[in-house]
Amino acid sequence: MNRLLLLLTCAVGVWTFKLESVPSCGLEASSNLVHHNPWLVYIEYWRGDHRTFVRCAATLVDSRHIITAAHCIRTPKFTRLVARLGEYDLSKVEDCVDGVCADKIVRIDVEKIIVHPGYDGKSHDIAVLKLAEDAPYTDFIRPICLPAGELQPDTMFAATGWGEIPIQGYYSTTKKIIPLPLWGRAECKAAYSNLVVPENTICAGGEEGIDTCRGDSGGPLVRYGGRAELWGVTSTGNSHCGTKGFPGIYTDVAVYLQWVKDALVGALDDKAEKLDTV
Question: Is position 71 annotated as part of the catalytic site?
Answer without folding.
Answer: yes
